[in-house]
Specification:
The structure holds two protein chains of two kinds.
Chain A: H1 5-33, H2 35-46, E1 47-51, E2 60-61, E3 67-82, H3 91-98, H4 102-108, E4 119-128, H5 130-138, E5 144-154, H6 161-164, E6 166-167, E7 173-174, H7 175-179, H8 181-184, E8 190-194, H9 203-208, E9 218-221, H10 225-241, E10 246-252, E11 259-265, H11 273-278, H12 288-291, H13 301-310, E12 319-322, E13 325-328, E14 331-334, E15 342-345, H14 346-352, H15 355-366, H16 368-377, H17 408-411, H18 422-433, E16 438-439, E17 444-448, E18 454-456, E19 461-463, H19 468-485, E20 497-507, E21 510-524, E22 531-538, H20 553-567
Parallel strand pairs in A: 2-9
Antiparallel strand pairs in A: 1-8, 2-3, 3-4, 3-5, 6-7, 9-17, 10-11, 10-22, 12-15, 13-14, 16-19, 17-18, 20-21, 21-22
Chain B: H1 3-79, H2 82-91
Classes of the chains: A alpha+beta, B mainly alpha.
């Protein structure tokens, strides 16, 4: 049968077709039915997770765009050793370049005896500069790996340390950097794809996505570095002059809520925060301006008078008989000089800083409900929501609280038995300066993304604790009180309103018999105040007769106000 | 061989030859098309890879420029920082002002 050529041809054709079918069948099996398995296997062989270059964090700028915190490009130098790598000859030179003891480096570059793996990784140096790196590269060591990274750079050193703060790798920390961490920090990006032997993505991978690091959002602050530096210098001088333990100064624009300067002492260098933490000095990180509440003393009489004026229960003609003493709720209020001052009006109450007058207003004119409603409206006992981490809300006893005592109505009227932060106090007085409109204190003026788009932070009114009329009346009373009895805080050519305070410091079981907090808050120039300054000096240790707020904080306020009016180009009004 | 057989086989052969030529043309055409398409694909892949390589180099360049830019920004900030400016001012003979007043000049 096979002799027939046609038959043989058919047989061969059939065999070839069968063979072809076999090949096609195999191809279908491999490329269709088993496709996912082979794709997965191929991926496993070719693809690895690789990290994209670290992105720089957002910069922090002052109100004029001067750099306050930037990024210094540095490198991490590590060793990725195979068991056969020879390291001994390189150790002496490498130790000198990396500034590490030879013995320490030798230990790092030795395979642990119990370790059975083929490779070992050891960190060699961090924050290595370009110059040092050049020397390392010149050694041409195969087992040295280099990773570019960034280090935070504080251009002005310790200037505005509490405001700028810092944040660790997890975003925990202090100041504006910790508060705005999610904006300024771009987390390291990891991607999976085909990589080369150098652990870098292959060109095909790059075509799919950009690997250029996208920097974090830059923040332009309301802080003016010139004003900040000047105020810091003045506070440092005042601490020496009055032998004070600590101090805080806040400068803000009452019309916008912008904080132009905020200083607290003692301070620290944010770039060295790890050193402070290692030596148990972490308490320095806490910003007293927003995180430490204090009893404000007589400065708080402004809130008491504001509350009474706003309620319409008193006016500039209102008077009371000052007998030098007032008893209410088991508490006896006395004036600072223990004297009786006879018939006094609101101006006399503020000018002489009479505790009895303030207590008269809360106990006999206002009552607890009206007074504490006003205290809450001024923002006491609440966060100001300034863009700084770890803000405290202070402590205000309300009549509905379980620990309420009637005597609080007396002591709170002149700022004792109530705890506020300096920023709360400044924001509340700023409302008086701004015709009763309270602006949210803020420190971030603008957010600028890496593509150049920027968002200006809106100035936000957060309430009107007193009417415009009441605010203007109180401002006038404050100005007149200063002109008659507080000349040491006035600035020639400018009309200023202000109030001093000397507060006792609460300690366990009562008040510290020796130490006080001296403070002054004022604003000007009237009638269009553009600057508010709060000065607070903790425990001035000079002669007790010379350490009152009117004698320490007020002259300091005067010096700062006089300079700021010039720096801010505010012409004299008188 | 009979005439019928010859006629038949020759006829078959002629038909077969004609069929083979047509098949060869189709096959050749197919090969040419496949080769063209293959070449086009390979050229595209090669171009893509070359361009991707360039993009990678440029991205690396951007990252390097970014680092240099940041380094320069930091250096400028250092040189124009307040302590450095004060030092330079003092070295140039300036002194810190003790009293500063706003000078109001009369209108011209």
């Amino acid at each position: 049968m096979l002799r027939n050529p046609e038959s043989r041809l058919r047989l061969i054709s059939l065999l070839l077709i069968a063979l072809l079918l076999l090949v096609v069948g195999q191809l279908v099996r491999l490329q269709v039915f088993e496709h996912p398995r082979y794709v997965a296997e191929a991926k496993q062989m070719l693809e690895r997770q690789y990290s994209l270059p670290a992105a720089p964090m957002g910069k922090i700028l002052d109100s004029n765009g001067a750099l306050l915190v930037g990024n210094l490009p540095v490198f991490e130098v590590d060793a990725y050793l195979e068991r056969t790598d020879e390291t001994e000859t390189a150790i002496p030179e490498l130790a000198v370049i990396l500034n590490r003891p030879e013995a320490e480096l030798r230990t790092a570059l030795t395979f642990p005896e119990t370790y059975t793996g083929t490779h070992v990784w050891a960190p060699l140096a961090r924050d290595v500069t370009s110059d040092t790196l050049r020397q390392v590269r010149a050694m041409n060591l195969r087992w040295v790996t280099i990773t570019p990274t960034w280090k935070r750079y504080y251009a002005e050193g310790a200037l505005a340390a509490h405001v700028l703060g810092f944040a660790n790798a997890e975003g925990y920390g202090y100041g504006v950097q910790a508060y705005q961490w999610r904006l300024i920090y771009t987390p390291p990006e990891f991607s999976a794809g085909a990589i080369s032997g150098q652990n870098e993505p292959l060109p095909e991978e790059v075509a799919r996505r950009s690997v250029t690091p996208v920097p974090g959002v830059n923040l332009r602050l309301t802080i003016n570095r010139t004003i900040q530096a000047y105020v810091e210098g003045e506070l440092d001088k005042a601490l020496v002059e009055y032998q004070a333990e600590a101090g805080t100064i806040i400068v803000m624009n009452p019309q916008t809520g912008e904080i132009l300067a905020m200083v607290s002492r003692p301070s620290y260098e944010p770039s060295r925060y790890a050193d402070y933490a290692a030596t148990n000095q972490s308490a320095l990180f806490v910003d007293p301006a927003i995180s430490k509440a204090y009893e404000p003393g007589s400065v708080f009489k402004l809130i008491t008078v504001a509350s009474a004026l706003d309620a319409g229960l008193v006016d500039t003609n209102w008077t009371y008989e000052d007998t030098g003493m007032l008893e209410y709720g088991g508490v006896v209020a006395r004036n600072w000089d223990r004297a009786a001052h006879g018939v006094q009006d609101l101006e006399g109450l503020l000018a002489r800083s009479l505790n009895v007058g303030a207590a008269t207003l809360t106990t006999r004119v206002l009552g607890a409900e009206r007074f504490y409603k006003s205290v809450a409206a001024f923002g006491f006992g609440q966060l100001t929501n300034v863009e700084l981490a770890n803000e405290a809300q202070g402590l205000v006893h309300m009549p509905a609280d379980w620990d309420w005592q009637d005597g609080f109505l007396v002591t709170n009227s002149f700022g004792q038995g109530i705890a506020v932060t300096p920023l709360q106090m400044a924001a509340a007085v700023a409302a008086i300066a701004n015709d009763g409109v309270m602006m949210r204190p803020h420190i971030v003026a603008e957010r600028i993304s890496s593509d150049g788009n920027s968002v200006l932070i809106a100035q936000t009114p957060i309430g009107q604790p007193i009417s415009a009329e009441a605010a203007q009346t109180l401002t006038e009373l404050m100005a007149r009180a200063m002109e008659t009895r507080m000349k040491q805080a006035t600035v020639p050519g400018y009309r200023i309103a202000g109030k001093s305070g000397t507060a006792q410091i609460p300690v366990s079981g009562g008040y510290d018999p020796d130490d006080i907090i001296a403070s002054f808050v004022g604003f000007g120039p009237l009638p269009d105040p553009q600057v508010l300054i709060l000065v607070k000096l903790d425990r001035p240790a000079i002669d007790p007769l010379l350490r009152w707020g009117s004698q320490t904080a007020a002259p300091l306020f005067q010096r700062i106000a006089a300079r700021l009016f010039v720096l801010l180009q505010i012409p004299p009004t008188e | 061989m009979s005439v019928t057989w010859q006629k038949r086989t020759h006829g078959v052969q002629r038909r077969q030859e004609a069929f083979d030529r047509a098949l060869a043309r189709v096959f050749l055409g197919g090969v040419i098309v496949i080769t063209l398409l293959g070449s086009l694909y390979l050229a595209l892949v090669a171009t893509n890879t070359r361009l991707s390589g360039k993009v990678w180099q440029m991205e690396e360049g951007i990252a390097e420029w970014q680092r240099q830019n940041e380094a320069l920004t930091v250096e400028i900030a250092r040189l124009s920082s307040i302590p450095v400016l004060i030092q330079r001012s003092i070295a140039l003979g300036y002194a810190p002002a003790a009293n500063v007043h706003y000078l109001v000049l009369p209108e011209p």
